[in-house]
Queue: 2 jobs
Job 1
Amino acid sequence: PSDGASSPVADGATPTSARRRRPGALLAQAFALIGPSGSVPKLLEAPPYKPTDCLNGMRVLSMIWIILGHTFLMPTAISGYGNMQDVVESPLNRNAAENNPFMMTILSAQSGVDTFFFLSGFLGALGTAQEI
């Protein structure tokens, strides 16, 4: 109905200025640090408060606990504890891991797995219930 100078492009066609954009420009914009879609402004803005934010923090702590446990327990050559006799104190082994609080924290990392799965399931179900 008008001269078409200010009307939007119809039928899914792109304007000529968008067609002339270089192929790498969209990729560069996706990884830009500054600008309207840059990473730095988004890092500095505070997200709105949600009552479940502390649960995400607990999930991060249990993830760190899991990584710590896997780091020391999976490769037994790194941790130095290759069998259960090295963990439990006995008359033959007075320098056992159960006397070391740091090592007991690593050995109890299974609790971190349980906590992580519980919190992830709860937050996922809560997010799904809020979307419905």
Job 2
Amino acid sequence: PPPPAAVRAVSPVSTVRSMPPSRPRMVGLGLALERNANDRTTYVQEIIRGFAAHKSAQFQVHDIVVAVDQEPIEGWDLDAIKQLTVGEEGSFCTLQMLRGDRYFAVTLQRISPQTDGSGYDPSSRYSYE
């Protein structure tokens, strides 16, 4: 009889590609803010559809922003306020607001808006979200 065929264990070659770690997506709250030149308060100029502020349905145009995450923002410039409101998608941010003579707080989870097929891309809009 012929000699037994040599049996050889063959392990497949595995290619491991190291993928760069993905960075968390940074998103805002969906509030376009403006500064009142007379009293220097910061107020909501626009609520941007699809973002957390819009989905919460708790904001109105002309609401005044008093604090972001317990940090009073009186006298801050808009870019500094934006730095507080923009954060990792899924993280939370609490805004203390004033409407008329009523103070209220809203905690929002930062989310990216879903595309709705309208062609509107909220990420292309320059605003203080």
